[in-house]
Amino acid sequence: MKIALNIARVIVGVLFIFSGLVKANDPLGLSYKMQEFFEVWGMGFLDNYTLAFSILMIAFEIIAGIAVLLGWRMSLFSWLLLLLIIFFTFLTGYAVLSGKIRTCGCFGDCIPLTAMQSFMKDLLLTALIVFIFVYRKRVQPLFAQALSVGLLVLGTIFSFGLQGYVLKHLPVVDCLPYKVGKNLIQQMKVPPGSLPDSTVITFVYQKAGKQVEFTADNFPEDFDDSVYKFVRRYDKLVREGNAQPAIKDFVLRSSAGNDTTHAILEQGGQSLFLFVKDEMNADPSAELNKALTQIIARAQARHMNFYLVTNMHGMDEQVQKATGVLPVTFLCDAVAIKTAARANPTLYLLQDATVVHKWAYTDFKKALDTLGK
């Protein structure tokens, strides 16, 4: 029993720490996933709090994982883990049964899992945590109280510190389709060899006051227009394919509303793209404005195109007020911007359509060093 209990603790502790660290690399990603659930449930009023929920949940995953490995205060943490895994299993189960959420964000964007894979993982974890919960009184602390508390404090500082760093800069490990080295045009294409969704046309007719459905291959033998009254037809999914491009919502629209995405990305040469979502309020300081002004000046000196990508009308005027330059501006969906730019604002350097560098607003001085070379 002791060996089985220790194995269960190691599996649960390591998985929780690993899951927390992967999500701590990009807490905004979990925040956006929470917003997706809230929108489905009609609880959009909680959107403004999802980042705080995300940070706290990620920190708790790491702290709880460390506590389980150390065997510290198992009477408390076994209860907390049990409640948390029940909540996670409910979320992944809902995603599977409803079909409204395709991925659950359990391991962030770095290890994408389907809703079913996440659900099966949570069922396994639930069994292990229940086992630990039942025999929690048999768990002996690995170290003395002072050392265990010290390790937990270090884990807490690290979890919040890592999240604070990536929120001000960018994810340490970029797992998004906009990462450095990726060609945006290629990322917007369906991967070669992928399979499209398999669908069948389904007809809905009314017969004797009841609706019946059938496909073109199995029309009823007694079919007659005088008996069956047409209601509608629709495409019924038979097999879900994987013909989805990595980037599917990135569209650059001119002020006239024209889609200029491919025209801009295919023009060749080096270009700078400044992504701004809603308001450029991350650090509205004179230092940021000065750095941005110098970046635009160096781009012009090197005959590079400089573009502003935003979801807000009038943002070009704000940039002009801050830098003295009215940028060429494209409107883009807010969802695409928050995927491409985890910090607000974020600067991209593209060679042709390939991402060469990307900088958060806190690293604009590094952008100046690169552009000065």
Report Rg: 26 Å
Low-confidence stretches: none
Helix content: 40-55%
> Into how many domains do the coordinates divide?
3
Summing up helix and strand content along with how strands pair, one would put the structural category as: alpha/beta
Gross morphology: flat
Largest beta sheet, briefly?
A: 5 strands, mixed
- Measured distance between first and last alpha carbons: 64 Å
Walk across the major sheet and give the strand order.
6-5-4-7-8
Mean pLDDT: 87
Provide the β-strand percentage band.
15-25%
Series of secondary-structure elements, N-terminal to C-terminal: HHHHHHHEEEHEHEHEHEEH
* DSSP strand tally: 8
Number of helices: 12
Question: Would you kindly provide a written description of the structure presented here, covering whatever features stand out?
Answer:
- This protein has helices at 2-24, 27-40, 50-70, 74-98, 115-134, 145-168, 184-187, 261-265, 286-301, 315-323, 334-340, 364-371, and strands spanning 198-207, 210-215, 229-239, 270-276, 305-310, 328-331, 346-351, 354-360.
- By secondary structure, it is of the alpha/beta class.
- Strand 1 and strand 2 form a beta hairpin.
- It is flat.
- The strands form 2 sheets. Strands 6-5-4-7-8 form a 5-stranded mixed beta sheet, with helices on both faces. It has a 3-stranded antiparallel beta sheet with strand order 2-1-3, with no helix packed on it.
- It folds into 3 domains: 2-168, no CATH class; 198-239, no CATH class; 261-371, Glutaredoxin, CATH 3.40.30.10.
- The N and C termini lie far apart (64 Å).
- Helix 1 packs antiparallel against helix 3 (50-70) and helix 1 (2-24) crosses helix 5.
